[in-house]
User: Which sequence fits this backbone?
């Protein structure tokens, strides 16, 4: 069964460093998303991406964040200068369409720890 | 903005007992509602969804949920818990007006006692 994969599973970085979280969405999906979950808090939407551009972003997704689909399979989230408060589990998701009732398929997450 | 509230961060049930997880939504129009499950070290997996068709929705692994507009609720149930149901469960909502994003509840951790 097709699944969304994410690498690495755990990333430890120093404050101020750049990190890139990688995702491989399901191959025939067209819409891609990043969510994050800070420990003990809700899963929060960060950004959605379609047709090589951002469709929607939350207020969390500031200038320190960027997303890219560098090739036909990968979808990346870059944090330019990490802060302690960026420590969280980051989930990638994909869906066939952007319709609000369509299932979003989630990856297993990358746990980012900023020291 | 759409939002959901999950009552109870942790539920403990005996094997074979009823599982009831509560979710209430906040919206002026009936939204689309979802229940996701997360097993340890895995991603979020869709259990079921409500998209304004039948109010009683059946999902995978014996779970079902009933949409009650009068109560703004979408509670998840399973008649008989199994050890493999131990996981974290998330209720989520999306806006019928077209927003792509899901808004999640805080999650409920289910433990199953032998």
Assistant:
């Amino acid at each position: 069964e097709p699944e969304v994969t994410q690498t690495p599973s755990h990333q430890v970085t120093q404050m101020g460093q750049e990190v890139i979280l990688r995702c491989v969405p399901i191959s025939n999906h067209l819409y891609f998303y990043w969510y994050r979950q800070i420990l003990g808090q809700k899963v929060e939407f960060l950004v959605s991406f379609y047709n090589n551009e951002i469709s929607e972003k939350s207020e969390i997704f500031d200038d320190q964040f960027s997303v890219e689909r560098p090739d036909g399979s990968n979808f990346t989230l870059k944090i330019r200068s990490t802060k302690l408060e960026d420590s969280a589990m980051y989930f990638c998701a994909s869906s066939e369409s952007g319709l609000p009732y369509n299932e979003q398929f989630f990856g297993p997450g990358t746990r980012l720890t900023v020291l | 903005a759409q939002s959901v509230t999950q009552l109870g961060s942790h539920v403990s049930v005996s094997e074979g007992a009823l599982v009831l997880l509560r979710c209430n939504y906040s919206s002026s129009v009936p939204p689309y509602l979802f229940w996701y499950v997360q097993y340890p070290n895995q991603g979020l997996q869709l259990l079921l969804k409500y998209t304004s068709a039948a109010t009683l929705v059946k999902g995978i692994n014996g779970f079902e949920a009933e949409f009650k507009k009068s109560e703004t609720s979408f509670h998840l149930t399973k008649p008989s818990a199994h050890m493999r149901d131990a996981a974290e469960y998330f209720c989520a909502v999306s806006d019928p007006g077209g927003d792509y994003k899901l808004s999640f509840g805080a999650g409920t951790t289910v433990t199953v006692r032998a």
Notes: The interface with chain B takes residues 3-4, 6, 31, 33, 35, 41-45, 48, 55-56, 58, 91, 93, 95, 98, 100-101, 103-109 of chain A (CB under 8 Å).
